Automatic annotation (TrEMBL):
It comes from Chytriomyces confervae. It comes from the Eukaryota. This is N-acetyltransferase domain-containing protein. Residues 62-165 form the N-acetyltransferase domain. InterPro entries: Acyl_CoA_acyltransferase, GNAT_dom. GO terms for molecular function: acyltransferase activity, transferring groups other than amino-acyl groups. SUPFAM superfamilies: Acyl-CoA N-acyltransferases (Nat).
Amino acid sequence: MSTPEVTLQLSSTYEHAVGMKELQNANLRRLMDPSVAAIEGFVTAEYEVDFLVELQKVTPAVIAMCEGKVVAYVIAADREASAKHGLLSDMVEQIDSRASFRGKPLRGEPFIVVAQLCIAKEFRGQRLVPRLYQYYADTYKARGFSMSVTTVAKANERSLHAHKKANWETVADLEFNGVMFDVIVLPF
C-alpha cells in the first residue's frame, strides 16, 4: 500500500479556511490535556474562519493537502492584516519595539508574520516543516518580504526544535499574558 501524496499550495477557498480551523481546534493548547500538549506540541492563538478567509485575499496561508484534506498549514499575515487581530497586533508592536536581527532593529523591516504553523498528528515526522517553510519563503520573498518573524511559546519544545531544524534564529523573548515566548526569524 502506497503512502498518500501530500501536496503544497496556497489557501484559496472557504473550504481551505474551514480545514485550517478544524486542524487548529484539534491542537489548541486550551483544549488539550497538558501532558499531551507537552509531548505533541500545540498552538495558542485562535483564528476564526472569517479572518482566515480575509487573510487569503492578501497573504494566503501555505497549506499541505492530502486526499482533499488540509493536513498542515502556515498562516501568513503582513503588518496590515496583523493589525486586524488583537494578538497579532500586540505581537508585531512588541517585536517592532524590542527585537533586532543581526544588529538591526526589526521596526520598519519588510517582514511577514507566521501567525501559526500546525501539522496534523499523523503527518508529523515527515519533514513537512522544512517543505512548508521553503514554499512560504519562496512565495513571500517574491512578494518583497526579506524575512519571516514569529513567536513560539518557550514551553512548546517540540515546535522550538522543529523551527531550529528549519533554520529559524532566536532574536528575543517576549511575554504575552504571563506566557514567555521566543521571537524567531527566518531570513529569506
